[in-house]
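Narrative summary of target 7.
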Amino acid sequence: MFANILDFLNRSPTDPVRLPLTSSHWPVLTVLTIYMVFIKVVGPMFMRNRKAYDLHKVIQAYNIVQIVYNTVLLVVGVYFMLGPGNYNFKCISNLPLDHEYKNLERWLSYLYFFNKFMDLMETIFFVLRKKDRQISFLHVFHHVNMVYIGFMYLYYYGYGGHGFFVISFNMIVHIMMYTYYYQSSLNRDLQGDLWWKKYITIVQLIQFGIILSHSVYTLKQPDCITSRFSATWASIVSVIFIILFSNFYVNTYILPQKKAKKTLR
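Modeled conformation, tokenized:
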């Protein structure tokens, strides 16, 4: 497996069309470095002696944009996979470079990748609002991973294919997540979280379970060569996130309830 990964990393891009931020590693690494330096060093130093910024309206607008963006992308993406793209879900491959709908596949994949940069704004808002407790390892790791893995896929593997099928589940999670954020922002005096917050994490775990199952199914087909690397990487990432999100769910929702029950006794 590791030999296959090295061979993959040493090869040139399979698609000659390089959209913005996909021409080399450096633009993406530069953005992620600036992001990390700001949220860990510059941002906290800047906010140390300042009051938290009131970004209520800005965040509401951001949430609406994310809901609309992911909904449109999901609808068009499903239509593309079932219609013009005619994906074979038993063994999903990228459309040929000369396919009449290749540009649509490129832009749908790219728009999802660009959305991962938009997601970084969430952490910036946390810093400016002094919500440091929300900048957890899981939060940062998830955002950084999604950006860089997205780039790696587009650069080495090409636009669309198995990876595009995988990300469609993430769009569903994002629609739920940003709907929750928007709904909770409508009542700033709300005590506690909305009742369905924990189900976002459950849906995330289901998402990774489906991706893992489909990826393993793909890998068990010896004649399915085109999706092999994508399925291998998706399997590894899914296992990592299942562990991390399960740990988050247990520590956030299960253990506090057990402690509360012990206190009442």
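The chain has a mean pLDDT of 89.
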